[in-house]
Each structure stands twice: as C-alpha cells, then as structure tokens.
Amino acid sequence: MLKDVPVDPRGPRFSAWMTTLILVVVLLTGWWRLLAAQTVLFAMCAFISLKLNPWGHVYRAVLQPRLAPVSEREEAAPLRFAQGVGFVFALVGTIGYAAGLPAVGVAATSFALVAALLNAAFGLCLGCEAYLLIRRAAPAASR
Amino acid sequence: MTGAWAVLGAVVVTVATGLLLRSREGRISTRRAGPPAVPDLPEPVRTLLAPGAAVTLVQISTTFCAPCRHTRVLLSDLAGRTEGLRHAELDVTRTPEVAARLGVLRTPTTLALDPAGRELLRVSGVPERSALLDALRPHLISPIG
Question: Could you report the predicted ipTM of this complex, rounded to two decimals?
C-alpha cells in the first residue's frame, strides 16, 4: 500500500461529483457493468493509491490551473477510507444487479449515492464521521 | 422507474442528513458535565490533563477524520493565545473503546476538562471559536491556575 501525499481539497470534491453522476446513471439504467467499473475504481483508490483516480488527473489538468491556488491541504488517509466505504457499497450493489437481485442493487447503490453526494455537496465524509460507530458495530472484524 | 425513485430518495436523505450534520457542527453541550465526585476518566485521557491549566481541551480524533486537522489548528491556536487553556489531541483510531467509554460517537469531539478531570462541556465537530471561548470564560477566570 502506497502512502499518498496530502491533496488540494477541491480535487476530491470534483471527484465526488463525478462519482455521484456515475451512480445516478447506474440507478436510472440498471447498467451493472458501469457499477462494476466504479467498484474497481473505488478499490484502486482505497487499496493502492489515490493517484490512480482518473478524476484527480482531470482536476489537475483542466480545473486546477483555472482556479486560484489554495494553501489548504487535505490528508489522504480519510479520503482513502471513504473510498473503501464506497467500495463495499458498490461491490454489494454490483453483485445484487448481476445476480438478478435488483432490489439489492438499487439499495446498495442508493447508499453509495448518499455518501458520494454528501461529500460533493456538503463536503462531509460520512464514512469518516461514522468511523467510531462502524468500529463499535463491528469490533470483532477489526481485531 | 424504481431507479428514478431511488435517486430521488437518496437526494432527499442526503439533503436532510447534510443539513442536520451542518446544524450540529460546533454545538456545545454541557449535558455530561460531571458531578462533583472525582470522575471515572479513561487513563489515556487523564494523562493529557495539563498541570496548572484551568481548562484542558482534549480533542478526540481518528486518522480517518478530515475535519480533525482543522480543529487541531484552531484549538492549538486558541490555547496558545488564552491564559490557562491547553490543548491536547487523542487519536482513538486503534483504541475505540476509549471513545466508547467517553460516549464519543463522531470525530472530532472536544472535551473541556477541569484540573480534576471533570467534564465542563464538550464540542461536537469543528468548534466555533468565539462561541467556545464564551462558554469557557467562566471556567478560565476561576482562581485555580
């Protein structure tokens, strides 16, 4: 697992909007292959490196040069944890759709959409806020 | 069609959750303000109590918490400029049982403790500087330190 350097906080916000868009398309069309691709993307960012996020590259190439620079930086660890939370929901959703259980697919994708949109619109990281709740609910898994 | 309803539902839930969390950001609570008896404070918190400080702000953080960094910057600056106020941070990523014993469910949560370890107040989320200072003032001018 690579260690990521802190990033411009507006990059992850842009990335969250793109994730939101993808998840809305998945819900409207039921196109599970797109959700599978998003699941792989979540996994790469969470378990390998944030540098593999294509939206980050789009942000740095297209948007960042047009914006005023900010000195503020955001730590990578919370961002990667959030990608991991997204990965779990997207994985369950993909399995649901692909296995002919659309209710499971829709429910899991909706949860992922809430988390992505909270991040995009409010700058809130639900998985990070709820980390202690998750640990309390699943203490056995983490020991 | 189900998908469209799911999108609509997710948007409504998101806006409601976002507004709720935003309204609670920086909220100061004295609900758990301790009784006069010596409190049952977890050891990792007790060791952070600054001797000689009227109030110690103990910030409960985790590695996965983005606003914890903003809170750290704000509180250490506030403590540096305020007589009798200290700031310490406790990372509970690997010791969530400490957070559970304190009744802390989200990070950052900041506890304001007196020299005996009694809880004066707690702040949920990133504190609002002037509101926090106002709430702490009565404790800071008490003739302790």
Answer: 0.84
Q: Which tokens hold the place of A11?
A: 């990059």
- The verdict on a CB contact (< 8 Å) between A133 and B106 is yes
Cross-chain CB nearest to B64 (options A29, A77, A107): A77
- Residue contact B62–A128, C-beta within 8 A: yes
How far, in Å, CA of B26 to CA of B109, rounded?
9
Determine the structural domain holding residue B74 and report its residue range: 27-140
- Furthest C-alpha separation in chain B: 67
Residue B68 lies in a domain: yes
Residues A95 and B32: beta-carbon distance below 8 Å: no
In angstroms, how far is CA B76 from the centroid of its own chain? 13
B35: domain CATH number is 3.40.30.10
Q: What is the pLDDT of residues A55-107, one digit of tens each?
A: 999 999 999 999 998 888 888 888 899 999 999 999 999 999 999 999 999 99
Work out how many domains chain B is built from and give that number. Answer: 1
For residues B14 and A111, give the distance between their C-alpha atoms in angstroms, rounded to a whole number. 10
DSSP symbols for chain A? -PPPPPB-THHHHHHHHHHHHHHHHHHHH--HHHHHHHHHHHHHHHHT-GGG-HHHHHIIIIIGGGS------B-HHHHHHHHHHHHHHHHHHHHHHHTT-HHHHHHHHHHHHHHHHIIIII---HHHHTHHHHHHH-TGGG-
CB of B16 within 8 Å of a chain A CB? The answer is: no
Residues of chain B positioned with their CB less than 8 A from the CB of A110:
6-7, 9-10
